[in-house]
Amino acid sequence: MDSPKDAETSPRRARGRPRGWEDNSAQNTIKSLDRAMAVLDYLSAHPGLTLSELAGDLKQSPATVYRILVTLEGRRLVEFDSAEQLWHIGPQAFVIGARFLRRTSLVERARPVLRGLMEETGETANLGIVREASVLFVSQVETHESIRAFFPPGTLSPLHASGIGKALLAEMAGERLEKLLARKMERFTAHTLAEPEALRADLSAIRARGYSIDAEEKTLGMRCIAAAVFDASGEAVAGISVSGPTIRMREDMTDTTSRAVMRAAQELTAAIGGVTPPVR
Known about the structure:
CATH architecture of the largest domain: 2-Layer Sandwich
CATH class of the largest domain: Alpha Beta
Helix content: 40-55%
Number of strands: 8
Structural class: alpha+beta
Number of helices: 10
CATH superfamily of the largest domain: GAF domain
CATH topology of the largest domain: Beta-Lactamase
Radius of gyration: 24 Å
Strand content: 15-25%
Strand order of the largest sheet: 5-4-3-8-7-6
Largest sheet: 6 strands, antiparallel
């Protein structure tokens, strides 16, 4: 048994936040810092603004905004183009963003999103990425139902016959897409889109609505709805889906389920610092 002295001298893990950190009231925020972050955030989304434009858009006094800009300029978070009299985001902002990306793990960030999606829909939630002509499933949160879809990490499924696969194919273009469509596509069920033209038409519909449907195209009696996840350049890097038996994932539930899936995909996109492009 540890002695009181041992307890006193044993190292304690330093706290990342003080007690009562859940309190986000004004007393725990720094207003001047909050204003500075608002300036930085706005300038990152609207590059090349004059002081007057920035102050006007943020409804702050030019003197206040100028002091913020000069402070941020000292840290190279913004920079000033003296020839054009315009303010821009600075190189240090990129450095900080790159550090965030280095610590960002897609699978790690996806876990709470997948769990939330499973709890909202009641069906198994999946995360997959492209591996040649297949989807590689890298994470899954299973439903509590006894009858359920099961794609353990490491499972491969053809792109043309899976919800995630079609969601990612819909975001491809040019030579890469044509090369994949030129492959012989296996027909697994009577519902499989194994002809290039039929698959092209489906991909066009997926792009228009923002999500894909696997309607018993790989396995009879199983249905899946998926949406793409995007990185900082707006490129699809993964797909997120829910899958389950058709007796539960009925066609009349498509609107509700697809909205949940798209929200989850957008949440994960934001969590990895990505940008969701508009539905085309």
